[in-house]
Structures are given as C-alpha cells and as structure tokens.
Amino acid sequence: MNKYLLLVFLFFVSLFSAAQQSKYLSGAVPEVGGKVIFEKSIAVKQPIDDERFFSLMDKWAQDNYKVDGDLNSRVLLSDPQSRTIACGGEEYLVFKKSALVLDQAKMTYQMILEVGGGKCNATVRNIRYSYSDSKELQPAEQMITDKIALNKKGDKLNRYYDKFRMQTIDSINSIFRSIDIYLNGVSTTGAAAQQVVAVVEQPVAVVPAPAVEKEVSQPLQNTVSTISGFKKIPADKIPASMMGKEVLILSGNVKEPSAILAKWKGTSTLMERLQAITNVSASQYSLIENAKTYTICFFTEIYDDGLAKLNGSEKIKDAEFTPVAMPSGSPAFSEAWMIIECKKSGEIPAEGANLKSCLGEIINVWIK
After folding, report:
1. Alpha carbons 163 and 141: distance in angstroms, whole number
2. Greater model confidence, 162 or 47
3. pLDDT digits over 11-38, tens only?
4. What is the pTM of this model?
5. CA 179 to CA 77: how far, in whole Å?
6. Sign of CA dihedral 165, 166, 167, 170
7. How far apart are alpha carbons 275 and 330 in whole angstroms?
8. For the chain, where do the domains classified as CATH 3.30.530.80 start and end?
C-alpha cells in the first residue's frame, strides 16, 4: 500500500514540476533580430502628466540603480526632453547556496525606460553573464535562447543552460513587477484598470465630519461583493510590505469627508476579529474619535504631492481627490490603490509622544 502511495505522490510531484517548468519553455525568452530583448509596457491606472511621470520614474531608477558592494548598477542617462532613462544593471543569479557551495553568476544588462502617455515602456537588452567556468562574458544569445536552452522538441530545458534561463526570466519579470507596483500599488501586468465611478463629478475640499454615535449594537455586515474598478480580497492578504507607509483615514460622508494622515502599523486580532492598526497624531484623533466606521486609503507615490497638501489640517482647500461612497457608508478616495473599511473598535497605547493608535475591525479590503 505504501508503495502505491509513494508512486501516486511522485506522479503528482512530476505534474507540478512540469507545470512550473512550462513557463520557461518555448517563447519565454523573446528574440528581436537574433537578439534577446525583453519588453513590457506598464500603464499607470490614474491620470498623470508626462513631466510628473518622468520625475517619478527617474526617482525609481536612482533608487534602484546605484553601486551596492561589487555590483556596479547605475543610471546611465536621464533625459527629461525625450523622457528616456537608461540604466546599467548588475545582479547575482544564485543557483545554489549552502555552507560549502556557492554557485552563482553575475548578470549585467541595459534597461531603457521610455515614459509618456500614461505608460512606461521598459526594455531589457544586452544581457551578459560572468560565470566561474568562463573567462569571458557570455551573451544571453548563447545561453538562454530557445535554440540553446531547450531540447529539439522544445518541451524540456537542457541541463546547465536551464538555471540561467529560469533565473533570468524570473529576475526580469521581477524588475517589471517592481515598476508596476511602484506606479500602481499592485501588479497589474500593465493592463489599465477601470476607475471607481465617483459619486460626485468634481473634486471637493475635505472638511471635518459631524460627530456620530460611537456605539454599534451589531457587528457591521454587508453583502456588497464588488465595487467598480476594485476587487475584494481577504483581510489576511493585505501586503506585509505596507508596514510604516503613510495612509489617509477618512470618516464622515461622501459630501463632507474628514481626512487625516496616519501611519499603517499592520493588523492584530481582538476577540477573534482582525483589526487594522494606524498611528495618528493625538491632535487629529478627535476627527475620527466618534466615528462608527472609517476607511484607510493607500496611495502610490504619484499622489505624494496631493497628500502633502493635506498636511494634517482640518481645513483643506487644495485637496483634489475624488470622494466615493463605500458599502459601510464611509467615504474613500477613488485615487487610492487599496481601501480598507473599518468599524471603530477603540484605541491602544502608541509608541512615541503625541501619537494615538487607532484600532478598527476590518470589514472589507478592496484593491485595484
């Protein structure tokens, strides 16, 4: 019996391995004129002018392409007129690492970013490898193409070349995904997402919300499963990488929303219910102290200027975000890439002077 179970287990393992390997097979390494060239067009989901767009991508390039130890990545060109950025990248592809063995290759490449029209066209080319068994840099055309790295049938990877091909594909996809997340908050694979339908046609100034009763007799429940432009995800899928990010807390109603800046501090469990934790200024806490529900809005760096205009002020004249009504009744801004609806639970001690930690039971989590 155990023998049959082992055979069944090995069969499913082989199926899983084959499925995993399929994404590295025929066509996974694109060639243009005999050269290996990876290309990706990444759309920004929110309107942005070309000058601001270029500035954001220049910042991304400067942050990600700089000398790090013996990796000499750098920005080679940044031209605002043509809105073109060129980078020289270096990184290690680690094939095997243990206490006794380190099998790795250094991959160098050139990346071109062309920015404008709401899209960032990213191109990775001139890929080379420095490996211990060769004194010369090996071009990708001799290491990872279909002709070199696949068998004649094209259904299996050839030994030795397989590790270069798989790690290169994963690494470049990671670069493209990094740009996407930087611009949109989540990976969209470059597809422009539909925006939330705004409740009001024109952006409005954010003003304090009227006080409401604090106590709620029953846990908030709602049956709304979709919001235009957003999809609902489980609360435990909130990205851990958001810790410490600046967010906006909104309460009140869609016509007169109240907004305060806060820091995202993650989640915790209280009485078997998942709670959202945010740190807010003690002087601003009164704006949400009596709210039954509120929303926590996350934004990409495109909206840094807009958030800076809020400046924690109760009287906001320059905020040009678009309020929308959420299922809980609380307002949110349609420009956010992630919105968390919360029922006010209370507050807990905060680390740091003049801070309060707001605790809210998570009702819904929406992402674009």
Report:
1. 15
2. 162
3. 444 444 455 578 899 999 999 999 999 9
4. 0.62
5. 18
6. positive
7. 17
8. 23-184
Q: Which two tokens stand for residue 96?
A: 């095997």
Cα separation, 244 vs 227, whole angstroms: 27
Q: Could you tell me which CATH number the domain at 231-367 has? A: 2.30.110.10
Q: What is the architecture of the domain spanning 23-184?
A: 2-Layer Sandwich (3.30)
Instruction: Give the closest residue to 327 by CA, choosing from 262, 245, 246, 230.
Output: 230
Q: How far apart are CA 201 and CA 223, in angstroms?
A: 26
Q: How many CB atoms lie within 10 A of CB 28?
A: 18
90 CB-side CA count, 13 A: 13
Domain boundaries for CATH 2.30.110.10 within the chain? 231-367
User: SS in 3 state form for the chain?
Assistant: CHHHHHHHHHHHHHHHHHHHHHCCCCCCCCEECCEECEEEEEECCCCCCHHHHHHHHHHHHHHHCCEECCEECEEEEEECCCCEEEEEEEEEEEEEECCCCEEEEEEEEEEEEEEECCEEEEEEEEEEEECCCCCCCEEHHHCCCHHHHECCCCCCECCCHHHHHHHHHHHHHHHHHHHHHHHHCCCCCCCCCCCCCCCCCCCCCCCCCCCCCCCCCCCCCCCCCCECCEEECCHHHCCHHHCCCEEEEEEECCCCEEEEEEEEEEEEEECCEEEEEEEEECCCCHHHHCCCEEEEEECCHHHHHHHHHHCCCCCCCCCCCCEEECCCCCEEECCCCEEEEEEEEEEECCCCCCEEEEEEEEEEEEEC
Cα 210 to chain centroid, rounded: 34
* 90-149 pLDDT tens trace: 999 999 999 989 999 999 999 999 999 999 999 999 999 999 988 899 999 999 999 999
